[in-house]
């Protein structure tokens, strides 16, 4: 299983960062469902894999609260710039943004959950999935290991392909 071509992904999301949230709005119910299925609790740390513009951050914040934390990882500096604007506008102090490929990201090793929302390309990379799954601390237990990838793959199968992104 190989992952996405980084140069193609960078170009796609460089061009698509502006207006991404608007263009993918039809996927909002799948985003909500994905976050709900994680059964997050206050104080937990969540990795938002390929977080892009941070469109999932408010959904995660509602569940983990200010005592929890979000680590958003994305390859695209343009998408992360939009995510940073969202974080700054909301005044969230518990969000860390990392610009890196998921395979190579130096993700903190203490997360309870990971959100793979509209990350069909990332899920094709065994190295990316292994890097994310390696972030789970002992508190995550079987919940994160069992649910995270399988549920999000199942959700992706239900998303209409014309949504893109």
What's this model, at a glance?
This protein has 165 residues and is of the alpha/beta class. 44% of the residues lie in helices and 12% in strands. The protein is globular.
Give your account of this protein's structure:
- This protein is 44% helix and 12% strand.
- The protein is α/β, with parallel strands linked by helices.
- The protein has one domain (6-163): Vaccinia Virus protein VP39 (Rossmann fold).
Order of helices and strands: HHHEHEHEEHH
Distance between the termini: 20 Å
What structural category characterises the helix and strand content?
A: alpha/beta
**Largest beta sheet: strand ordering:** 3-2-1-4
Give the helix tally. Answer: 7
Name the beta content range: 5-15%
Task: State the name of the first-level CATH class.
Answer: Alpha Beta
CATH superfamily: Vaccinia Virus protein VP39
Overall pLDDT: 79
Over the alpha carbons, how many angstroms does the gyration radius reach?
Answer: 14 Å
Q: Residue share in helices? A: 40-55%
Count up the domains: 1
């Amino acid at each position: 299983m190989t992952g996405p071509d980084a140069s193609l992904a960078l170009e796609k999301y460089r061009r698509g960062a502006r207006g991404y949230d608007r263009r993918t709005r039809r996927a909002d119910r799948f985003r909500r469902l994905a976050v709900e299925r994680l059964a997050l609790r206050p104080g937990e740390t969540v990795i938002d894999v390929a977080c892009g513009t941070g469109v999932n951050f408010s959904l995660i914040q509602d569940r983990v609260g200010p005592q929890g934390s979000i680590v958003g990882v994305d390859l695209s500096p343009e998408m992360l710039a939009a995510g940073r604007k969202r974080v700054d506008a909301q005044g969230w102090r518990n969000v860390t943004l990392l610009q890196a490929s998921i395979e190579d990201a130096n993700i903190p090793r203490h997360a309870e959950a990971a959100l793979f929302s509209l990350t069909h390309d990332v899920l094709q990379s065994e190295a990316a999935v292994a890097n994310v799954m390696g972030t789970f601390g002992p508190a995550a237990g079987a919940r994160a290991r069992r649910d995270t990838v399988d549920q999000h793959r199942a959700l992706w199968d239900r998303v209409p392909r014309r949504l893109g992104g």
